[in-house]
Amino acid sequence: MSTTLKIFLVLAAFALVVPFVPGLIYPVFVMKVMCYGLFACAFNLLLGFTGLVSFSHAAFLGSAGYVTGALMIRFGAHPLGMPAALVLGVAASLLVGLAIGGLAIRRRGIYFAMITLALSQIVYFLAVQFRWTGGEDGLQGIPRGNLFGLDLTSDTTMYYVMLALFSAGFLFVDRIVHSPFGQILQAVRDNEARATSLGYDTDRFKLLAFVLSAGVAGYAGAMKALVFQLVSLNDVSLHTSTEVVLMTLLGGVGTIFGPLVGAALVVGLQNYLATIGDLVTVVIGLIFIVCVSFFRRGFVGEFLHVRRRRAERRARAAPRPEPPPNDAPVAEPA
Amino acid sequence: MPLPFSSIPAGAAMPDITLQAFMAQLTIGLIGGCFYALLSMGLAIIFGLLNIINFTHGAQFMMAAFLAWIGLTQIGPWLGYPDFQVSFWVALVLAPLCVAVFGMAIERLLLARLYHLDHLYGLLLTFGVALVMEGGFRYAFGVSGQGYEPPEILQGPVDVGFMLLPKYRIFVVVASLLICFGTWFLFERTKLGAYLRAGTENPRLLQAFGINVPVMITLTYGFGVALAGIAGVLAAPIMQVTPLMGGNLLNIVFAVVVIGGLGSILGSMLTGLALGLIEGLTKVVYPEASTVVVFVIMALALLVRPAGLFGRDV
User: Fold this and answer.
1) In whole angstroms, how far apart are CA A96 and each of A92, A112, A220, B44?
2) Could you give all domains of chain B from N- to C-terminal order, each with its CATH number?
3) Which of the residues A71, A117, B177, B280 has the least number of beta carbons within 10 Å of its own beta carbon?
4) Which residue has the higher pLDDT, B160 or A124?
């Protein structure tokens, strides 16, 4: 069993008991962390493992949220309504991801980031203009519906369904990262020219990674629409796109659990700071600056780094494995 | 079945366009284009030497507009002399200077530490600074727009034959074009410009020739930021002065920069002006689309000419 799976099982076991221990953590908070955590994992798949910066992830989160929400409002009562809305929401985000990614991979580096930012503004504009998205009001009062007849209105039932959905999404991302495909993505990240010279069509791999990342972000957006029963313009705004950058950075870019830690920290911070209003932006900005200047590995990255350094030091301090020459005097152990 | 996704009423005819309205929108477009040109030129200059996209550009634009507004309406009462004002002309020099000094301090203290790393970090840092600045101004002054009176000499309209034009708008167009031309001249036709272009090409070799490249980088950053500052003061009487004015504009300027490319100063200037005009025209034909037409053009330009109209790929 891999270390990732072990840590994940510990976390899942903790999450399983949360509803039984009132006062431990508010389950709705955990659900929010799961949604944003998965969102950040999707972003990290792109930034951490493919080396692409996207400022359009809110467009994926939001488009899936809008489609899922709109479908739930119409067909939520049907026993298959919820899974169908979820799947179609993800399909929508895959399409948006294909459109934005297809255009953006035509340029590299800084242009790539700017193109994703600009194109996500079109999605924002469409969300304001369309009638089915509710314009400025967004979608409110989205029914949670039922899953094959299982009523989801209770927070506890919803919690376990969300935990299952989250686990599937998280393990999917982990699977991608550790697959041969994921190894190629990391090769593209580390040295694109070399990956090309080895015969990989790097543009195709980057696009595929982009679309997959968009799909997972959309999956998180659909979950979020179901949990909180509303989708607003904030979900497709640049603000959300940058929040996910911060979550990933704070937790640790290119680590498996970093995005989860980062999401928990940012969501917790927002709850905690909700009273100070406009200053939240200032605090978030300051964290950005501190993170980028002094704390680039993030919490999980820093932890892994310290552990690796300690292991290296121990390996150096350990006695050499090769036996001394026969004629040399054997040193007495001190 | 009517289109469910469209906000155009079915069977809507083209709106009646009078020459007056057409020219008015075109002028507004031209002014928007001037701001795009000033801002994208600043971005191009900074990118040339620092290799980062300055996400703080919008916040610096906003900060200059706010400084001008504070100078005109707030500073007197704050100091206890209600009659004391910093006039528009003084603000036009002083505010960009303040913003540039502030920018250079950030470059020295924070950005310079990141040059040896992936450029992504520089981008994220400037982004964080923008958040702090916007949040700070929002906390101090709220989100509602503040009005700014243009100086008396520029108030009122001028009759240009076929329509009446506000004097101030003419001033903005002329001033922006002069500044754009001056910057182009500085960079392409002077010795200093040659150093700067050499720094873009190969900073280490330039340093070997005895030029203090780090100082040059700081001053260049200050210059690019000052351009945003001038645009901010010029915009104060036209747009509402709000903490959000820069961020909204910057998104469009990014698209402008993608279309024009960051490689050439003239290119970013012309693209900015052209896109402003196109935006103005769109306002006449289909007003709802005017906010995204630049992004749509960017998408089309990427399909046709991936490397940008004037740019070289990075």
Assistant:
1) 6, 16, 15, 29
2) 22-151+165-304 (1.10.3470)
3) B177
4) A124
B300: chain A residues, CB-CB within 8 Å: none
Instruction: Tell me whether residues B258 and A107 touch, CB distance under 8 A.
Output: yes
Q: What is the pLDDT of residue B310?
A: 67
Pick A280 or B1 by higher pLDDT: A280
Q: Does A135 touch chain B (CB under 8 A)?
A: no
Which one of A111, A118, A285 has the shortest CB-CB distance to B314?
A: A111
Radius of gyration of chain B, Cα coordinates, nearest whole angstrom:
21
| A-B Cβ pairs (cutoff 8 Å, strict) | 131
Rounded to 5°, angle at Cα A65 from A49 and A182 = 15
pLDDT score at B9: 45
User: Which among A129, A131, A289 has the least Cβ separation from residue B110?
Assistant: A289
Give the pLDDT band (50/70/90) at residue B15.
low
The pLDDT of residue A325 is: 57
Cβ-based contacts of A281 with chain B (< 8 Å): 131-132, 134-135, 138
A192 contacts A60 by C-beta, under 8 angstroms: no
Q: List the single residue in B114, B119, B251 with the smallest CB-CB distance to A109.
A: B119
Token pair in block for residue A124? 């924002």
pLDDT digits (tens, 9 = 90+) for B95-152: 999 999 999 999 999 998 888 888 888 888 999 999 999 999 999 998 888 888 888 8
pTM recorded for the entire structure: 0.86
Residues on chain B touching A106 (C-beta within 8 angstroms):
302, 306
What value does the mean pLDDT take over residues A278-296?
A: 89
CB contact under 8 A, A122 and B5: no
User: Would you say residue A322 has pLDDT above 70?
Assistant: no
Contacts of A248 in chain B (CB under 8 A): none
Domains along the sequence of chain A with CATH: 3-317 (1.10.3470)
> Distance (Å) from the C-alpha of residue B196 to the closest C-alpha of chain A?
21
User: For residue B298, what pLDDT band results from cuts at 50, 70 and 90?
Assistant: confident
Closest residue in B to A280 (Cα) is B135
DSSP letters of B220-283?
HHHHHHHHHHHHHHHHTTTS-B-TTHHHHHHHHHHHHHHHH-SS-HHHHHHHHHHHHHHHHHHH
Residue B156, H or E segment: none
What is residue B26's predicted lDDT score, i.e. its pLDDT?
86
pLDDT tens for each residue of A51-62:
999 999 999 999
Distance, in Å, from the CA atom of B157 to the CA atom of B306, rounded to the nearest integer, reads: 43
Q: Return the pLDDT at A321.
A: 61
Nearest by CB: B302 against A106, A113, A125:
A106
| pLDDT reported for residue B314 | 43
Chain B interface includes A227 (CB < 8 A):
no
A96 within 8 A of A88, measured Cβ to Cβ: no
ipTM score here?
0.83
Q: Does A279 touch chain B (CB under 8 A)?
A: yes
pLDDT in tens, B238-257: 988 999 899 888 988 988 88
Question: What angle in degrees, to the nearest 10, is found between the helix axes of B213-235 and B19-50?
Answer: 160
